[in-house]
Amino acid sequence: MKRLGLVLASLCIWSMAGWAGEILRLTLDGTINPATSAYVVRGIKEAKKSAASLVILELDTPGGLDTSMKEIVEAIMGSEVPVVVWVGPAGARAASAGTFILLAAHVAAMAHGTSLGAAHPVGLGGETPAENDPAVQKIVNDAVSRIRAIAEVRGRNADWAEKAVRESATATATEALELGVIDLIADSLPELLQKLEGFPLRDGRILTTEGLPLREIPMTFKEQFFAYLADPNLVYILLMLGIYGLIYEFLTPGIGLGFVVGSISLLLAIFGLHILPISFVGVGLVLLGFVLIVLDVFAPSHGLLTVGGLTSLVLGSLSLFEIESPAVRLSWTTVAATLGSLTAILLFILTKGLSAQRKKPHPLTTLVGLVGEAKDDLNPEGWVLVRGEYWWAKAEDPPVSRGEQVQVVAQEGRRLRVRRLPQA
User: Fold this and answer.
1) Which of 13, 191, 327, 423 would be 63's cystine partner, CB 3.0–4.6 Å?
2) What is the pLDDT of residues 372-413, one digit of tens each?
3) Has 48 been annotated as catalytic?
């Protein structure tokens, strides 16, 4: 009974003193995509599992996918362990989707020389859509309601948060602190930990950081691999290399470089397409474009099929990914350079290969100049023996008697033209 009382007393003292666990540090440097969202969600779950005192998310992002941002925001909002989002070091930013993540934190902090904001929705090509478009207004209003709800829950400036969406408003660290968007400014991680000591949360909890160990949670190899493949430009190049390589391999005999490069590139592209949101209409247009180009090689249509195939490829490429963020989108330059280069190379190779196949076969060796023996009386035609083989020949200086030596002067397919070799 006394032992139970000591245990309860110890638990009470521990709860009054704050959290005695470690501090976990996560680093999100780059676009917000399914790989980085999985990393952040895993880190927050690890904090709960290990009874950590605090999670610090070091953020530097130009934005990213809306679905991935939503997963991170939900993980932060539902975390029992306090999550501090720090935009740093100097030069970092929390743009677009990063603004939502910063506002969702239990404690929002920035370093001098950093910025946040510019969370207005954009079109698939990166351009700002027309405000009078009903579909655009629906998207903007939805984003506004979400960011206002996040700001209100955390007690931050909801009016400025709305401007960040509607007007693409931005703010520096100093301006964000004055506007009530963030809670504090810290130029380094040690300074951040020092300012977090004794910091009160809205739910009444007091943060404790002094003397607690700091543990880094790195991205796993799988997360790094998928984060690298979450670039639509890289995925598009791999997809084109894969399909062009396999087409070249199918149209040429044997198994060679086209099969190896095409297979590897296509598999990597499939990994990327699994991560990114894609349009099946875009995929269909891309495949149709390849079919039309190949058909034009075998059934010449004066370039009509090739023009149609390239048009289908361009339209399919631009509609291949359903991405609204300019930070994660397919570039026009990538499409033009990839399609132009690979199509030119493939057409050149296929044209040269088919023209070579249409040429009449020529023997690898010639008999011209060799000496043989007449096996018939050539008057003017008959059989001759040249290098152990019988050939039908015509004498240029008939008649040639059987047994005389002759010299080949021309070869016309399976016939030879010979002349009598002067006797020694």
Assistant:
1) 327
2) 999 988 888 999 999 888 889 999 888 888 889 999 998 887
3) no
